[in-house]
Design a protein that fits this description.
Layout lengths: L8 H10 L2 E8 L5 E11 L8 E2 L4 E3 L3 E2 L2 E2 L42 E2 L16 E2 L12 E8 L2
């Protein structure tokens, strides 16, 4: 797939309520190096739970750790925030609007990880760009690409 595609939170919530899933992130940093992260027991809460992000305890991958946590782990149990629905942990701003963070995400305090940010081709340090901060140095800012994939754990 060469274009943007989002299955949708309603479908993800329905699917992940049926059985246990894992989620895999394939990332390409600004130098086009590949990294990955896999989280077990991935689930999205239903709409009345604001599509809360739920992750299992098991992590594998080389996408690195961030602030004594894994990049996505710091967003665990967060609600999905969009321009018009502010459910992040910041009282002072809406993370989806701040710094042009792009589309919605399970923002905690606006940082660490946002794969729905703006695509900048990995050429600058746009604060609203796609990011996975736990990658080496500033390589986690302004990613060249990302893929999120889920599969059932049978």
């Amino acid at each position: 797939m060469q274009t943007e595609f989002w299955l949708g939170n309603e479908k993800l919530a329905y699917m992940t309520a049926q059985t246990d899933y894992e989620i895999r992130f394939d990332l390409r940093d600004k130098n086009d190096r590949p990294f990955y992260a896999v989280y077990s027991n991935f689930r999205i809460g239903e709409e009345k739970m604001f599509y809360r992000l739920i992750l299992g305890n098991h992590f594998t991958g080389d996408a690195g750790q961030c602030r004594n946590s894994y990049s996505l782990r710091s967003h665990e149990n967060m609600f999905f925030t969009t321009y018009d629905e502010d459910h992040d942990a910041r009282d002072d701003i809406n993370c989806a609007r701040a710094h042009n963070h792009g589309g919605g995400w399970w923002f905690h305090r606006c940082d660490d990880c946002n794969l729905n940010g703006e695509y900048g081709g990995g050429t600058d340090s746009n604060p609203g760009a796609m990011e996975w901060d736990s990658l080496d140095g500033s390589n986690g800012r302004n990613l060249r690409g990302s893929e999120m994939k889920i599969r059932p754990l049978y």
